[in-house]
Amino acid sequence: MKENKNNPENLDNEKVSKVGGVPDATDDKGVDETMGKTPDLKEKRLEADENEVDETEETEAGETEEDVHVGGLTARRAEDGVEELTVENVMEDSFLRYSMSVIIDRALPDVRDGLKPVHRRILYAMYKNGWKAPHATVKSARIVGEVMGKYHPHGDSSIYDAMVNLAQPWKMRYTLVEGQGNFGSMDGDDPAASRYTEARMDKVGAELLSDIEKETVDFRDNFDGTEKEPVVLPAALPNILLNGQMGIAVGMATNIPPHNLGEVVDATVSLIDNPDATLDDLLKHVKGPDFPTGAEVYGGAPMKQAYATGKGSVTIRAIADIEERKNGRFNIVITEVPYGMSKESFIEKVRQLVLDKKMTHIADARDESARGKIRVVVELKKDAYPKKILNQLYKMTDLQTTFHYNVLALVNGIQPRIMGLKEILAEFIKHRQKVIRRRMEYDLRKAKERAHILEGLKIALDNIDEVIKTIRESYDDADKRLMERFGLSEIQAAAILAMQLRRLQGLERDKIEAELQELMAMIAKYEEILADEAKVLAVVKDELLAMKEKYGDKRRSKVFNHELGKFSEEELIPEEESVVLLTAENYIKRVSQTDFHRQNRGGKGKRGMTTKEEDVISQIITANSHDFLYFFTSQGRIFKMKAYEVPQASLTAKGTAAVNLLNMHPDEKITEIIKHSDGIDPETGYLFMATKKGTIKKTETKNYMNVRSNGLITIKLDPGDELKWVKATTGKNDIIISTSAGQAIRFNEEDVRAMGRSAMGVRGIRLRPKDEVVGMDVVTDPKQTLIAVSANGYGKATLVSNFPTHKRGGVGIKVASVTEKTGPIVAVHTLDPEASEVIMMSSLGQAIRVAVKDIPVLGRATQGVRIMRLADDDTVASLGIVLPEDKEEESEEEE
Q1: pLDDT digits 0-9 by tens, 116-148
Q2: What is the pLDDT of residue 312?
Q3: β-pairing verdict for 846-851 and 837-842
Q4: Where is the composition biased (Basic and acidic residues) (predicted)?
Q5: What CATH number does the domain containing 346 carry?
Q6: Which of 73, 307, 316, 476 suits a disulfide with 421, CB 3.0-4.6 Å?
Q7: Of 51, 78, 105, which closes a domain?
Q8: Active-site pick, 196, 307, 385, 704
């Protein structure tokens, strides 16, 4: 008959009949991280074996050969006793044994002491040999040999690695082994070989074995039956929460973070005082995980779910400070890292991001950690924005990680179960109740045994002369004579006979009576506690509080009770001053303002943009990367996007076609771009528009609060006309409109009534034949100047006060003298008194940045001076203004 082999205790010792067996494995790893169906297989196998027993009995009743059902499959049993099994049957049986062996005996921790078998065996071997303080450390190879030879029949490397983990302070919140020598590093460096390092049990590790000699836990045979090993340790502390655990079994896995000892003890005491305590009551004490490497922990609903169900997550973020160097540049200094992060891997990742040009503002990354203190420095370039770079590092590297809870542990040493915080603490309290009860039963028994002997000694003391006489007169039966003469027990008589005669004569009555009285009090106390479970729990509570007093420390990880949201794209974009370039053919790009170096007037400039043949630069906008850009098109529509959404490119790149960014018609072009730091504000007042043919229109800004992705209509246009200029106004500003022939008109916008979005507008300036509008600007300050630039690179500034106010619709007055030498006027802009610089671009892509102070202020009818030297076939295409705040920021950087 086949025996039932599904008892977990028999899994390692049994063999599958004739074929199969448990594969030998040497580590604590499996293949899957999800809950499997091993328990179901076990139940199926048990049912199958019961059927097998019944049918085998029928076979023995007289049948010579019969079908036998094994594991739900059919085998043949022949008369000679040879059992024929299918491959499926053997595989099912073998995999069941293997999986149960990995789950119970190797990969999962016991909820009571928080240890896997290999860790438990390492600590027990150290305890048995006295390798704990104050004993000196011993060679790790000796410890490994002791564990492997007596308790753990697997590879020495797996045992040594497990011991090393117990000694690494960056992995263990409270180390259980004290190591001496090279035990590796948090960057993944391997420890020295076991023959070079030494170790002994740490103080907290010793507490897990406290009172084990008092029969507080069960023992079982080791693998060869020559030694005894504990099934579980007494565990004076809830180690499964203090140090956490990670393991992968067959079909299941566990991942438990470490916690703070003081918080866990307080929560346990709270549950002892109030067994009906809710999860919220316990979470008043347990704030969240407490990682040995510190860092910030963001919990919220996922963390609460983890403590309620055993499954959830927290986000861990490094602690990083921004430090300014003497040269005004910045460093990002990381002092605490997420649990399990390698500093070396982080630095390598940063360098790779720089090489891949995914992060362009980092100059260097290095590790300056020393003497146990973490310090990783990321050095930034001159134009970097530290906070934005730090956000990018959080997103793209391990500076921010997620820890996923999967609180799976063995209950009663055999049943894998996913548990919440309350269930874990309840199981630990139950375990400690048993340990305290068994310890007190042991102490009670020992106290009674000693009291029994003392009572015999007291009787001997009361009858000392007769006792001595009886012993002297006896030969081989002194114990029997003492028992008969004085009514002593065999143990009492043996104790009297074991004493030297001179000591028996010198016994002190007071000393015996005092010890006996003390023992009787202890016996009464033990019996009183054992008779009341509440008093047993009180002892558990007192001992936990003593552990907190002895080993409690401050929390290392700072917990925030809210989720850390995902980074928006905007949070990852540095705030930097940019120049947005638009060509007449609607190619657009964004470049850093620092790419334009200031030159004196008359310079040749530098290559600014590669354009298509016959394409020219039409507009330059200086804007912060986080500014809103409002795009107005030739067909009178408006679109909106952030400046950083305009693709960044090199200074010489052609750019991106605007139709790829905005939902425009094929023949539609961007003609005006307005920037605003916070979007169009209805309090600003109005948008004032002008077309190529001199039509103007004023409309309230509130009409453009919500710009759809497919745009909004801003003005109705005559055939052949185009919307070219749009400015934000207050409703009381003066407007200046300039033409290519050098004419300009200034009028007050109050002359123009506000209209709806789809209105056509009114005449702003009367144009002469072949003339067209080249500029429309708003006068905000009487001290402003009007800068006019001609096609051949000439330019000048003229005081706005030289242009008197007229009624709209006139032909205007001269703004500049247009000659064959200067060419037609191509751009006219008003400049604030403190405006710093202008950027000029040519039709062939040359660019120059000129200080405003280098441009002379001249009269209206002059042609100006040479601002930009051009090639024979080149002309000025556009003009951009660098605002005063940009100047201030750059000055600060240069300092």
Answers
A1: 999 999 999 999 999 998 999 999 999 999 999
A2: 94
A3: antiparallel
A4: 1-17, 26-48
A5: 3.30.1360.40
A6: 307
A7: 105
A8: 196
